Amino acid sequence: MHIQRIHLQKNVISFTQSLTPFTVKGRTHIHKNLHKNIKQEIALLMESSIPTRSVEYMDNRISRYSMKKGNCEITGLFLQAHDVHCHHYIPIQSGGSDKFHNLRILHKDVHKLIHMTDTAKMNILMKNSGITEPMLQKINKYREKCKLERIK
Asked: Where are the extended beta strands (E) located within the chain?
């Protein structure tokens, strides 16, 4: 008896080995494919400095912004550099780090909402920012990680 073996091969079209941030060619390829607005905002973020933050934080903030295509991770809106805040999902005081997976790109007002404790100010900021119920649910998940009460 003869058994015929069939080999299936699947080609992943969107993957290329040249698309890596670890080589000059790869970084050039990635940079070319970034949207013009994102390139401008990344340049501004690269010029900024936050003296109290590590090099790892500053680098990962830019990488995260690029990966999210400049969009707030809660509102989904495109952020200009002056509106970008980078939040530690697990706070440093709770064992969080400046590693890429622990950072979130947020609009500065959303970041304020995550850390605020004054209910009246929170309500005004939510109304002025157009925070929807799904956005509020995400904000509350972040607040829980910061050991803060949920916003109702």
From this structure: 84-88, 103-107
